[in-house]
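Standup notes, structure subgroup. Blocker cleared on the magnesium ion input:
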Amino acid sequence: MTIWGTPMPAIIHAGELSKHFKVFKHHRGIFGPLRNLVTRESTLVRAVDRINFEVDPGELVGYLGPNGAGKSTTIKMLTGLLVPTSGEIRVDGFIPWKDRAEYVARIGAVFGQRSTLWWDLPVIESLDLLQHIYKIPQDRFEQNLGEFKELLELDSFLNTPVRALSLGQRMRADICAALLHDPKLLFLDEPTIGLDVVAKERIRQFIQHINQIRGITVLLTTHDMSDIEKLCKRVIIIDHGKLLYDGKLDVLRERFGGKRKLIVYFVENYENISIEGAQVSSREGTRVTFEFVSKEHNTSELINKISTKYRIRDLEVREPDIETTIRRIYEGRLLEKS
Ligand SMILES: Nc1ncnc2c1ncn2[C@@H]1O[C@H](COP(=O)(O)OP(=O)(O)O)[C@@H](O)[C@H]1O
Ligand SMILES: [Mg+2]
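Run returned:
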């Protein structure tokens, strides 16, 4: 990325990044434990397999993949919790696992599956503790807490122990905790997992807010397509530890998305409706659904064609469903570059 000709270095760089786990086979039965000791048969799981990507400062990138794809393993390496088997990572000039002590002060991390807060302490006491750990100046702390309290609606449960919070409340508390020390980067591992629609939406809005208003670089993993649709322009898709796609969500849709739908409400009940380049896929009186390949026909051209032949009352465009699009990518059928 460049701004006015000055190259801006990436804030996250992952080069040929890999993490392998050796998993020992477990034999069951009476002699199982003995066989486990003697044979030590193992298989190698390539959780992350030679992945390359870069993230520019201020980006909000979705890291997407089905269960077991290697998302959490990547985040753990990026946050310094795991040491890569091979390859390199640089984040904001640091090597996460090596420079851990200094590095963690620059980043925020939220893991949807487990809280980083003290289980038995009221939320506010956890936050106070973090102020001391990160040596956050009093005014910054108060200012941040004030803002996050309002945006994340924390007031009603600040005095509740973490263990007694609902999943959505816990996630909001965790996100607040991850941001109190003004990190430049935020890593979120499945921040909306298990939440209902309203709670998901709240969290998405907050993530968008801190990215846009505070300019915090965000990398979030999810297996929820709607997180990606609502939040990210750019998406990285992995499966079986390998990178499948890195680019704009729009392009992904164009390239792999298949058919787009155009629903037209006509003024009259026309008899034989036919338009070149689109098929009528269903019809209920004056409501007619057309399907067309988005790569070949552009929507406004098509609308033009229809409106010169018929009188239109209203219309809707339906994008190819992102979930289907991504499933097709996982299935590997459309990977060849078109
Ligand atoms: N500590 C570990 N030991 C052995 N295998 C692991 C370990 N952590 C993850 N894996 C394996 O690595 C793969 C990727 O896991 P993970 O990164 O958690 O995927 P995701 O977060 O995308 O669901 C899975 O096959 C998982 O079983
Ligand atoms: Mg995971």
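Discussed briefly. The domain at 2-106+183-253 is CATH 3.40.50.300 (Rossmann fold).
Next: hand off to the docking folks.
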